[in-house]
Amino acid sequence: MNRVLRKILIPVALLSTILMPCSALASEANFSLGKTFYNVDNANNPMDAAPYIKDGRFFVPVRYTALVCGIDQDNIAFDSNTQRLTLVTDDGLQINFQVGKKNMVVNDSTKSMDVAPENIKGRVYLPIRYIAEALNRGVTWHAQEERVSIQMEDYLAKALKEIKMGSYPTAISLCEKMSSISPNSAPSHTIKGLALSQQGNYEGAIASYTKSIGINPNNPLSYIYRAEARWQIQLNTPNIDPIINDISQAIDKSPTPEYYCMRAGLYNYSGAYDKAIIDCNKAIALDNQYKTAYYRRAFAYCLKEGNEAFQGELASILNQFPNDEKATQYMQLLNTGSVFELDVSDWLEVY
Asked: CA 135, CA 152: separation in Å to the nearest integer?
């Protein structure tokens, strides 16, 4: 049955091509003057304090600078008596500085700063570049927008690579790391869902896709992948309406020939042949070279009306694609009087 699923929906091999654009968005974080949020992956995440400018320096709450640099909150320690703050990275690098002091200690190396950290209402602020430079992260000042961007580790691109290599637990950990940095990152939940699905944890995958959709309901891929997970769970049940509904949502967001053919395949599976034909016609109207749509339509006619209708559709395929080997073989068999009785597996085998 897994073979059938791959024929209907998008293969995992295409993940890097499909999702790399959304993961690339997570390569930087942005802090804007006076705004109580930071932006990662096109998503705004709340802060309890806002950046400010003093003496020409852009001060950001250290907690959030550290966060986007991958330092967990558990690895940030503040001694209220000495006003000393300690940050520790995942690989053990330690950064120390003290409110009011113009130096920073990175492991055993002392570095001078031209301004000192400030404590305002229990929040320690420091120009973002000092922590960024200690961690070899690039920083850019956008003067017109009064915004600072800081380079981030691309956790989602790494997660996709881990999925391709079959390292699903590592991919899940990377996605969870990204979610801890940017709770409103929809792609982190989508990619986590892909890893969970590859592990066979379809319920968990559905939950991740649903979270992604809750954050960004306009991404068609989240619906497509949720449909894939639902298909695996509902293989032995007659009701595939939730799967069809997910693909319909994807079509509403992005009406592509591929999505129409996915839904057509499911309509054929459920016996809704007229709906399958309509979807195939829509796919062909969008791309008259999309061969899968012609075959899905041919199978719908065969299942609905029999071999004569199937033969007519094969003739249409050969008219559009004169050298098509599959259509030629089918036509030759029909001309010998062979009778086709397509079942679900048969019509999904072609493409």
From this structure: 10
3 state DSSP class of 147: strand
Span 158-172, average pLDDT: 95
Q: Which CATH number fits domain 7-27+155-254: 1.10.287.130, 1.25.40.10, 1.10.1740.10, 3.10.450.50?
A: 1.25.40.10
User: pLDDT, tens digit, for every residue of 326-350?
Assistant: 999 888 888 887 776 666 544 344 4
Can you give the pLDDT at residue 20? Answer: 46
**CATH homologous superfamily of 33-151:** Copper amine oxidase-like, N-terminal domain (3.30.457.10)
Q: pLDDT per residue over 53-102, tens digit each?
A: 998 899 999 999 999 999 988 999 999 999 999 999 988 999 999 999 99
The CA R_g of the chain, rounded to the nearest whole Å, is 27
CB 101 within 8 A of CB 116: yes
| Cα dihedral across residues 260, 204, 199, 1: positive or negative | negative
CA distance 315 to 328: 9
What ranges in the chain are assigned the alpha helix state H?
2-8, 15-24, 62-68, 128-134, 155-164, 168-181, 186-198, 202-215, 220-233, 241-253, 257-270, 273-286, 291-305, 307-320, 325-335, 344-349
* DSSP label of 137: -
As a dihedral over the C-alpha atoms of residue 49, residue 50, residue 54, residue 59, rounded to 10 degrees, the angle is: 80
Residue 112: strand, helix, or coil:
strand
Look at residue 340 in the predicted model and tell me its pLDDT: 67
The amino acid at residue 45 is N
With a cut of 90, say whether residue 204 has pLDDT above it.
Answer: yes
**274 SS3 class:** helix
Angle, alpha carbons 132-135-138 (nearest 5°): 45
**Pairing mode of beta strands 76-79, 57-61:** unpaired
